[in-house]
Predict the 3D structure of the following.
Amino acid sequence: MRRRYYGLILGIAAIVFSLFSVRSTLPEKEITSIDFLAFSEALNLSIMPMNKSDKILPFVGDSLLGYADLAENKLYVHPFKGRAAIDKAGWITYDRLATNLQLYEKNGREQPLQAYAYPWFKASWRVLLRADQMGIALIDKTGFILWEKEFQMPVTAIDASSSFLAIGTLDGSISVFDRNGWAILSIQASLQESQTIYGLALSGDSKYLIILRGISPKKIETYRFEDNSFVKLFESSLIVNTTFQATMAIAQDNSHAIISFGDLLIYYNIKNKYYRILEAEMLGGDLSENQTDVRYFVLGSLGDSLVAILRSSLEDTASSDVLILNHGLLVHTAHGALGAIGEEEVIGFVYKDGVELLKGWQP
């Protein structure tokens, strides 16, 4: 759930808040506690107990990354430069050219990693996308390569669930792999028409796969996992005029997906097979009166029917918000946030100066 892969925000201006300020619009009656953990009071990651894994949330900030300790309301942080991918076992830093990769354990201990690739972490998958985007490698927490795959065309979309890794390519091919690297679904490119994969999403429980392909019209294809493979249920035409690559996520309850094409945000109802464009007015309007051009990036599902969206301004690259949508309706705005994290009944928002934790809220 990180905005760094797409460079949506080039710089973040300092926003001054008091330590205990409430930065969100969520009614207090719907949560049990709101805690703001300031980076100025954070602890060094090297002293974090190594046995902490079940009650920590990894995050990436502007120049700090680390873990939020949910049980003790503490932050453990480590400075970094460039870009980063993080999970509960550690992180990898890298630059925009897929060079200078550095692998770190959870306590900040550095290990060598010789690769020219973009790291991508999700659902305990650690994937290295080759710099030419023509291959991937699955690695463990030490950087050891478990298996590799090569493709005939560049990778244009990637997503993972607890069980599967899905890959889409420029020519329209789709591959879905299990943890052992076995292909449980392989769809070859069509020779008759351009079917570029603009985006795809796996549901958290691995039951659904949604694929977005084609130029005009675009098509949304919905698959369900049955009999050890994904079976196509239906497809719908998506009449939108955009060439942006999509980011997308399926809500945890599998009711719908949220799809973003740059400045366009779409709600897609999986079971009823329809979509609607989410207008800016429905999402709280522009970031300010003087900002009319925004970009959306789907961060991911935060539980049940909630999906987090990063909204940034092209006119003021230091401005961003995180929006929480419930079935496509805005229920929460975290003004100035850079990202969102979540686990069970905890939702967190990452700011330039700290992390805000909202505990106990259920949609």
